[in-house]
Automatic annotation (TrEMBL):
Its EC number is 2.6.1.16. The chain holds residues 243 to 618 of 618 of the full protein. Residues 45-185, 218-366 form the SIS domain. It is found in: Cytoplasm. It catalyses: D-fructose 6-phosphate + L-glutamine = D-glucosamine 6-phosphate + L-glutamate. This is Glutamine--fructose-6-phosphate aminotransferase [isomerizing].
Length: 376
């Protein structure tokens, strides 16, 4: 069993550590610095359709739905297409507005989630081109969609998803670049610059995994907490949601994720000296939108401090400003705003893992949860 887990105590920890490799596999053969292009496997969607999409709708469940929210930012930014994100279980029982100029994307690690497969079928039934981001070749979603981007993260055993999530974000980034190049919104030079950043990501992830021991240490202080709050802005809001989900799934601690700007509309009432607040706040120097979000989040941090909250901040290396204010600071390597989401989730996965281990929970098989929900 230990051999199956590659020497790690749990599949979850093994899979967290596999993320650099998973992402190398997601990128392999799909990006080229030579001609500044992204290549996807052939799809049944004609080139003319790729050029003419007016809208993207993404449907998913659970952790995959959080990846979809990151994907919305990335696709809107890089391909300049409006994106809507739906829970698959909501999409399938609504009467969504769809036409042939809408690309419907489903994201599903297993490719077998009942609601997500139903959403895919509903979209096909209504004549929309469909595209699946999926980790399991030959799964239902991979077989039925008009186009498929396999994440190639390798089998994910732990119920709590980790490497599938980060590889989904990278897959969405590739899809955004692909749409951008087809719509002539991105030049070859633009695509090349993004590809360079993607190729640098696995090494940065390796550096981030070096925080494992620090997070194990941090878990000693927080494993008895009964509630956690996670806050972030922009792409770091879905990362806050994902951090909260990881913690509740495997440690059974109640946790909520919120956009940092929404604190004053409710979550502020929860803050006291017993509430750990995880603030996801990497910053991309020289990116004005990222800088603004960072400054705003920094003032949210000050509000948490004013109410005696205890802050764990995920920051970009070298952020001394935050370090003077937060009780605990976990640095991640500098990266573009979108890719810092991939780096920032890793400490949250590790924090949830170490807390769950300390609480004696069954990390790989949490109570009441299944790896894939194939019946409603
Ligand atoms: C279950 C799993 C989650 C997963 C979700 C969606 O709830 O426990 O980890 O995110 O299903 O699964 P999918 O295979 O569609 O991504």
């Amino acid at each position: 069993i230990m051999a199956e887990k590659g020497g790690f105590k749990h599949f979850m920890l093994k899979e967290i550590h596999e993320q650099p490799r998973a992402i190398r596999e997601t990128l392999a053969g799909r990006v080229s610095l030579d001609d500044g292009r992204v290549y996807l496997d052939p799809t049944k969607i004609p080139d003319s359709a790729w050029e003419g999409f007016r809208r993207v709708v993404i449907a998913a469940c659970g952790t995959s739905w959080h990846a979809a929210l990151v994907g919305k930012s990335v696709i809107e930014e890089l391909a300049r297409l409006p994106v809507e994100v739906d829970y698959a279980s909501e999409f399938r029982y609504r009467n969504p507005l769809l036409d042939e100029h809408t690309l419907v994307v489903v994201i599903t690690q297993s490719g077998e989630t009942a609601d997500t497969v139903a959403a895919l079928r509903e979209a096909k039934h209504r004549g929309c081109p469909t595209f699946a981001i999926c980790n399991v070749p030959g799964s239902m979603a991979a077989r039925e969609a008009d186009g498929v981007l396999l994440t190639h993260a390798g089998p994910e055993i732990s119920v709590a998803s980790t490497k599938a999530f980060t590889s989904q974000i990278v897959a969405l980034y590739l899809l955004a670049l692909y749409l951008g190049q087809h719509r002539a919104v991105l030049s070859a030079a633009d695509v090349r610059a993004h590809v360079e950043q993607l190729l640098a990501l696995p090494t940065k992830l390796e550096a981030t995994l070096g925080q494992d021991a620090a997070l194990a240490e941090l878990s000693k202080e927080f494993f008895r907490a009964s509630d956690f709050l996670y806050l972030g802005r922009g792409v770091h809001f879905p990362i806050a949601l994902e951090g909260a989900l990881k913690l509740k799934e495997i440690s059974y601690i109640h946790a909520e994720g919120f956009p940092a700007g929404e604190m004053k509309h409710g979550p502020n009432a929860l803050i006291d000296e017993r509430l750990p607040v995880v603030m996801v706040m990497p910053r991309e120097a020289g990116n004005p939108a990222s800088e603004v979000r960072y400054e705003k989040t920094l003032s949210n941090l000050q509000e948490v401090k004013a109410r005696d909250g205890c802050v764990i901040a995920i920051v970009t290396e070298g952020d001394t400003q935050t370090a003077t204010l937060a009780e605990h600071v976990i640095p991640v390597p500098a990266a573009s705003d979108a890719l810092s989401a991939v780096l920032a989730v890793v400490p949250l996965q590790l924090l949830a893992y170490h807390i769950a281990v300390r609480r004696g929970c069954d990390v790989d098989q949490p109570r009441n949860l299944a790896k894939s929900v194939t019946v409603e």
